[in-house]
């Protein structure tokens, strides 16, 4: 976790809103975060996942980012829509502008 804290710190990627405690939450309660690039891959990409429920012939299509938004904002304490959006904004800034 120490390397992840450093990777997202002000001295490295400068992703605001990711404290050591929040990174620990990701590591302990989801499969979202193993490497720093996982946040960018899973939260910013819009790969489509389609699942079919054969018992009632329904198909559910969600994007990877929608899936993780739902997981984070409903399953993790302290993560609401506002804190999630702040994280996305910070990740997009780094993805678009690079490291400052």
Characterise this structure.
With 100 residues, the chain is α+β, with helices and mostly antiparallel strands. The chain is built from five helices and two strands, in the order αααββαα. Strands 1-2 form a two-stranded antiparallel ribbon. Helix 3 packs across helix 5. It is globular, with a radius of gyration of 15 Å.
Distance between the termini: 23 Å
What strand order characterises the main sheet?
Answer: 1-2
| Sheet of most strands | 2 strands, antiparallel
Beta content: 5-15%
Poorly predicted runs are none
Q: Which descriptor suits the 3D outline? A: globular
Radius of gyration: 15 Å
Give me the count of strands.
Answer: 2
Q: Residue share in helices? A: 55-70%
Task: Report the structural category.
Answer: alpha+beta
Blueprint (SSEs and pairs):
Elements: H1 2-8, H2 20-29, H3 36-44, E1 48-53, E2 58-63, H4 64-75, H5 81-97
Antiparallel strand pairs: 1-2
How is this structure best summarized?
With about 100 residues, the protein is α+β, with helices and mostly antiparallel strands.
């Amino acid at each position: 976790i120490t390397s992840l804290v450093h990777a997202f710190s002000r001295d490295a990627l400068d992703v605001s809103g990711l404290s050591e405690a929040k990174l620990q939450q990701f590591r302990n309660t989801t499969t979202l975060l193993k490497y720093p690039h996982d946040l960018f891959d899973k939260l910013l990409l819009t790969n489509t996942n389609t699942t079919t429920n054969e018992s009632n012939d329904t198909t559910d299509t969600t994007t990877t980012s929608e899936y993780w938004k739902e997981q984070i904002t409903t399953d993790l304490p302290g993560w609401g829509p506002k804190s999630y959006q702040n994280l996305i904004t910070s990740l997009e800034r780094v993805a678009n502008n690079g490291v400052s």
